[in-house]
Amino acid sequence: FNGSKNFTPDELVPRMQRLGIGFGAHVNAYTSFDETVYMLDLPDLSEETVKLAYTVMRDFADGALLKPEEIDKERGVILSEKISRDSVNYRMMQKQFTQLLPQSLLPNRFPIGTEEVISTAPRDRFVDFYSRYYTPQRMTFIVVGDIDPKVTEEIIKQTFGDMKNPASPGENPDLGKIEAPQGIQAALFTDKELSSTDISLLSIKPYTVLPDTSEVRASRMPLSVAHSILNRRFQRISKQENTSILSGSASRSPMFQFVDMGSIDVTAKDDNWKDAVKVLEQEFRRALEFGFTEDEIKEAKANILNAYEQQLKAAATRKSDALATALAQSINDGSVFSSPQTDLDLAKKALDAIDAATCQKAFQEFWQADGYHLILSTKEAPESSKDELAALYAESAKTAVTAPEQRATQTFGYTEFGPEGSVVKRNDVTDLAISQIELSNGIRLNLKRTDFTKNAISMIARFGNGQLTMPKDKPGLNLLANALYNAGGLGKHSTDELQQILAGKNVDVTLGIGEDAFTLSGKTTPDDLELQLQLFCASLLDPGYRDEALRQFKAALPMIDQQLKHSQAGPQTQIEAWLHGNDVRYMMPPTSVLANYTAEDVKQWLTPALTTAP
Fold this sequence. Notes:
Layout: H1 12-18, E1 27-31, E2 36-40, H2 47-62, H3 68-84, H4 88-100, H5 115-120, H6 123-133, H7 149-160, E3 183-190, E4 198-206, H8 214-238, E5 245-255, E6 259-268, H9 273-290, H10 294-313, H11 320-333, H12 340-352, H13 356-367, E7 371-378, H14 385-396, E8 423-429, E9 434-439, E10 444-448, E11 457-463, H15 477-487, H16 495-501, E12 510-513, E13 518-524, H17 529-541, H18 547-566, H19 569-579, H20 591-594, H21 599-612
């Protein structure tokens, strides 16, 4: 789009910059498989800025000159972008599409294109595509902001009203066919840069287009609840002492109103995929045969309902760019852009009707199939692993599974913290609207009221001297300390128990280790503020340091090793150490060194800061 009806190639960017519109910051675009979206984020609503914005958007629509010399200038830029996208995740996605959808157009239409086309496509191909597909009948124009809708509608009509649809517009492409597998169809994907070994069970079926009604939304809710419960089960299994998985998940992903994909995935511990595949198969079958317990249903429903409630409470401070993006997504999805109040009302009604039986039925109906794709993704493995994978899955299916156990409900064990303190000093800084308060125990508070995000409270506690106090003979101890503190729960509750106890509540706490201070940070709401403060205090006074967190950290070290070898994270850690004069406290030691650290090492370092630091 360098050069259009209204702007020469050298004219547009300076014009925008003079008005405070920066490329990247305020002007952006993306092309996906099935849509292209152009975005302008205006810094003000002055007449000159608004006029420029509409003119630019109209030129995007049908005013590009597509000069040969401008096209040639961009070829190298796009080739460079293609190289930068050649990541392990991108290669894995290409392999998955080819394996799962071999008779569809999707594996042959990755948006970045091919080197041959990027390097040689002549101008007439660009013009043909632009004139047949950039047409009014395919376009949606969205404006969100502090505007008068009627005035804005008139400007849109004046700007775009004389655009004409061509006599022979481009047709929607035939996306091809979806071929569902019969039985277990195993596949092996290898790449030396993979940081983990993963097993995926996938269900592939054609997508059924349904109108976005309240009934349809309600019908999809039980499966969402079921998948969230299975996610929690995998999370608990990953923390067990002799586990063979690091994580797991279950999801449904409709794509392009063409394919409906279900995916159950586990990441193997120590690349031991042979044991991990058994966990996947048996947990999948346990859900099919026995469904879900009432306590699991209650926890999942509480979290889902709370998410809708918070969206409603924050509705007044939603950002314009986020609203515009959501509107654009609804166009392509064929969905109704509904208000947070409507979403909450529909969710409440749907959740009220959900119980263990409806969740199990939804899970069974969605996952009922004549066959599945079973994919092993790992750094390296012999081709025979594909057959072994299928054999192990079949062998696991012969093992009987038992029903999940109902978990006891607990109450939060940290509500009393001794005698109430008092305010001994207060200073209100009027020009900054900040209150500075000192409590009788010496703690200092800085309070500021804002209206940036409605119904949200952000808090941070700062104490001690952070990485500066780390023992010099234990480089990298901060990595273990962070993992052990944040995943170790509290003295009275594990992280799993906390998730159950705090379901539906808006509280969290995360330890951060900075160069010169430790921090505890979290977000909450006015309704949950007291609980959030109790959680902060409990985290300071009684961190859990549980063995399960230590096990998870050590199990993840091989993945960290791979990331350091095959991504920018490796050089970045070296630069970080160099910038600190190669101080050992800022160096990344070999992961074999990290594997020898203990919870006691972390306690000895953190305890003084947690108990005595200001």
